[in-house]
Amino acid sequence: MEHTEDIVMMLEQISDPAFLVQDGIITQVNPSAQRVLIETGSDIASLLATGTQEYADFRGGYLALTLKLGTQLCNASVTRLENCDLFVLNHEQDQAELQSMALAAQELRSPLSSVLAVAEQLFPLIGAQNDQKALDNVAQINRGLFQMLRIIGNMSDAYQYSQDSSSRFETRDVCRIMDELFSGLMPLTEHINIRLHYDSPQKPEFCLVDVEKLERAVYNIVSNALKFTPAGGTIEARLTRRRNMLYLTVENTGTNASGLSPASFYRQHLRQPGLSDSRFGIGLGMVLIHATATAHGGTVLLEQTQSGSTRITMSMAMRQRTDPDVRETIIHVDYAGGHDHRLLELSESLPPDLYGISNH
After folding, report:
1. Right CATH for 5-90 from 3.10.150.10, 3.30.450.20, 3.20.20.70, 3.40.50.1820
2. Whole-angstrom Cα distance, residue 126 to residue 145?
3. What is the pLDDT of residue 295?
4. Fewer beta carbons within 10 Å, N or C terminal of the chain?
């Protein structure tokens, strides 16, 4: 199983653990992969913790799944190169970066909470003046506060999600959850002249699900799609079941739909600061999406279609509870601070007039 010189050279230059797979067998590893005891000749199927079916169906794009190395779970990305697949593992440094962001978010929450508290008292006073320019300014400020709250929330929770330390699973009908989420999003996307269409199975699909994580993953997927869909465009979403897996697929169409870059899609938070396309954000939304898929036994696949659109597919395993369904007694804190979850998660794409005093 020979590989071209360019592929071998690229593999050696990757600092994270990385290796090549051909016909299901690991054929070449870089020094970092050797240090975590990944060996040539091993069957990749024996290392897959999630993504067995998704990798079997993989035909191209960018697939994020989970490997089991000894007793440790490790996130990995898969990219097809000529006649082989390149696996790149997330390095411990990635977790250190996310942990640093979580610590920074803790420091930022206090001053932001103070500003939000003052705004709660100030905005009604401004509204009583019935000055349209002042009301417009309030909407601008309110939208900015929502954006900051979302960024800080993502910074805070991306590390926890990636550690799978905050899951609250219960048996729910996933189809009903998705129907409610997309029904709530459609009026907002219509407000910016983007059509959101959603199809789902016509029967209930009950399985273990963390409702909050699933909600945030859906909102982040749609938020990304909105940023790359021009006015008048369409976002197509559908939920399907194949064997014991559920697949949520979201595809954004339009002339500007191909702005996402698979090569850096999941690791934006590690890039160097500087001028770039602001639509990419810092990438923590995609960390939440991947972590949600992993917690539900699934994967995330990013593809560029021939028409130039971007398609993202998040899978979930149809897992059932084997122990008694005991509800947690721990008080749950709303990640949105009591604000409208939709307005919070889509704040980068929605116009300020949706953030007026009546929505605060």
Report:
1. 3.30.450.20
2. 17
3. 93
4. N
